[in-house]
Amino acid sequence: MSQELNKVSLERGLEALRAEIDAPVAAFFSSCVRCGLCATACPFYVETGDPKYTPIRKLEPLRLVWEAEYTLWGRIKSALGLAQKVTDAMLEEWEPLLYDSCSMCARCSMVCPVGNDLQYMIRKTREGMVASGHAPEGLIGAAARAIRTGSPMGLQWKTLDVQIKHVEGSSGLTVPVDQVGADYLVLLSSMEIINFPEYLEAITKIFDHAGVSWTLSTDCFEATNAGIQIGSKDIAAELVERVVAAAAKLKVKNVISPECGHAYTAIRWEGPNLIGRSYPFRVFHIIEVLDELRASGRLKTEGKETDRLSLHDPCNLARKSGCIQEQRNLMGLVAENFVDLKEHGRYQWCCGAGGGVSSNERAEPLKLAAFKRKKAQIEEVAPERMVTMCATCRTQLEEGLEEFNMDIPVVGLTEMIADHLVEKDPA
Amino acid sequence: MAERKTLNESLRERGVSRRGFLKFCTVTASLMALPPSMAPAIAAALERARRPSVIWLSFQECTGCTESLTRSFSPTVEDLILDVISLDYHHTLQAAAGHQAEAAREQAMKDNHGEYILIVDGSLPGPDMNPGYSTIAGISNYQMLMEGVAGAKAVVAVGTCAAFGGLPAAGPNPTGAVAVMDLVKDKPVINVSGCPPIPEVITGVLAHYLVFGTPPELDEYNRPKVFFGQSIHDRCYRRPFYDKGLFAETFDDEGARKGWCLYRLGCKGPSTYNACATMRWNSGTSWPVESGHPCLGCSEPRFWDAGGFYEPLSTPLIAEGPTVAVAGFAGAVAGGALAAMAKKATAAAVAQRQPVKVEELEQSLEGQP
Amino acid sequence: MSDPMGFLLWVKGPAFDWALAIFALGMFARLVEIFMLGRQVNYAEPKGSEWGPGFKTVFTRTFADPGTFARSPFDVVLGWIWHIGFLVALLLFIPHIELFKSVLGLSWPGLPNPVVDAITAITVLGLLLALWHRLSSPVKRFISTPQDYLVWAVTFLPVLTGYLAYHRLINPYPLALGLHILTVEVFLVVFPFTKLTHVFTAFIARWYNGAIFGRKGIES
Fold this sequence. Notes:
CATH architecture of chain C: Up-down Bundle
Low-confidence stretches of chain C: none
Structural class of chain C: mainly alpha
Largest sheet of chain C: none
Helix content of chain B: 40-55%
Oligomer: heterotrimer
């Protein structure tokens, strides 16, 4: 590939938008009747009351390109010089709408009466934003670090290695690294490694207990995909290729995505299309793997949490990947007093931090505003603790609850499972 | 010509009693929606009236209007009218023929110049058409009309052909037929449309003119509102069935036999203005709807071309299947071509595109505040 | 108006033919434009199928989820009322059924005229309320464009003029019926170039939505 650098430009952005327009996009824009119900599903609108955050409005740049170039009437208008053009100024105005006030949670896609998948189109519109140079600084930084170092936070293997040693010491188990022929290649997220190191220990214990053959890879340990967050398939593809290469080198049958939201979406649903071919391996979220172990009787647990627990479904896992019942099955194993939030599963409300919002400093105020929707949900149910399966959601919940002086600890589901494993008899 | 008798004299001669005459005047008053107290005034006016000259020109017509006028079973209104007026020229009713008939017409026109009433039935070829399409005694309809109008006090166009062009003017209108009002601009024209008009409507209009010397109040089509101001639909005895949504769907089906609304069989009652539903035909015996046949709308302009008689009022006039097919195909081709072009252009751009690199994104940040 | 019958015959004749032609041309063009764009091949391992979930969403998306309904009950209910009313007036009024029979060759049973009349009156009110809501609700007001108001007008006028014609509130009747048909023709001409296309494309959009989510194992 040529090392020559081009510039980002409006024209490149428009070309990117054109390339994203497919039959669903055309059907969606043909059908929007400006009813505004998508706004009632968006936590950014609901908690700010500002109609500029109406989801369909965020897509205006993509819609203008579609109308002007892919419809008969639009072409007539363009020929007469009556079509509104997408300009740099417009994209600059739209940047916060597409990045700061949207976590790509897809709740709007579930609610639109005419069936528009707005999130699908947000993802596509970001391609145009990136190529035209209108993506947020925070996300550009994360993407650059991810490409150069392998981790959006610049985390290196040597830091992870310290953690591995700690886990091995503490559990007395071995963390397999670069094991060729293992069943499962495990990926981690930098956020998790830094903030929630108990995850690594938890899966080490669980896989040992269940007799799962797994490994980490020194070539690629990062699950998260800054390319997906920023909306660049070029950057995203490069990151996915690293996972695919690592999996191929270790000849694994499956790849596990950790307690993260977008990482799963990236590798499970977008990945093969980014690289233009199917994987020779299968992809699972750790929760799916754990539920499979539960269902096949390989997870033996004892005791249950007795305090009142509720669950936050990460959007990318639940609404966008259909993994809804699995976590509830697992809660059933280890929780005595579990109550769902009123709107959960596919209609659950986003924590406000996904889709790149948490990597975007400029979006802090909006991120906190959106959290208020989640806060209201939690208050309605009044749990003593919240359980979740995504490091970004977990961080947002912890920070948000603290901001509002709510004393509700947040815990990861995997570590909760690990806490209740029946100890193996010492051989 | 014979000295004109007064009506009184004529009636006595014919053995019509005063009572019979007054009854006619009362009927006329009620026909014209005038109060019964007007009957004596009508009687007085008619009694004194010198029988005015009426010249009846028949052009491209079927004689149905005359048949309607003279088709009655009781010698009251129609006959009386023919006594009240002096019908100096009428192809069907006159005794004379050939040159003598034309001579009588010309004489009447001369003797009563400026005073006679000109009645016209049938449409006529327009002034730019070949006059040979319709002539009488070698004179074109157009010429005869304009000559007749020149000395007329008023013109009454009897029948839809004279009023609006009627059947001869229906597509493709081979003779270029036009209505009387299209040609006559300088004299009052009263349209008594219908195919044919109801007899009492014809005579009622004449009676009004004879009594008051002025035409009755006219609608936008120059038709007397008293007879043409109500739609058939608003006076139809089957209206309750329309309102309830009970329709005959085919002739002689259950609905038809029960006397349900004939809308679905093509009744044009809603858009037709005439007196059929109230006065009815054959001295009030019946009328088309009552006999089970949908109204044709025969008193309206262009009713022959207003959609099939058996096509409901709500249907388009032009067969739309071919239009939709051709236009749809054209749209599909146009849309397809444009879409193909757009796709091709996009595919070419995608093939040539340079992937976005993080260095480029970082570069774009430089120079930003 | 000096020739109401002439006006009626013109709107029922050539004007309708043209309006239907433009409608057919525009609508077929739009459908072809959509489908020709196609979709990229999807290499990701599916978790569910597309066809079944696609069609299921076509149906179920008609009903608002409880959360959305709780947040916008007026909007949801009003939308139902005037849409259903509009469809009843359009499809279940016997003179209209005759029109469809003439154009498409298909016919079906209708509702009694007084029932359609009452529903039409409700629809007129519903549409007026819908306009008020579009003007007063912050979100709708913000996102609405002149086209939204134009579409409201061309949708409202046929219902209103149909009601006026049925009740013969405009005289003479050929003028009333002619105006009604004319407003329908304006509706048809404007249709393929505005959001009215949703009448057809919403079902396509819903199918894609159901398919995209269904392939990932979620019911949308």
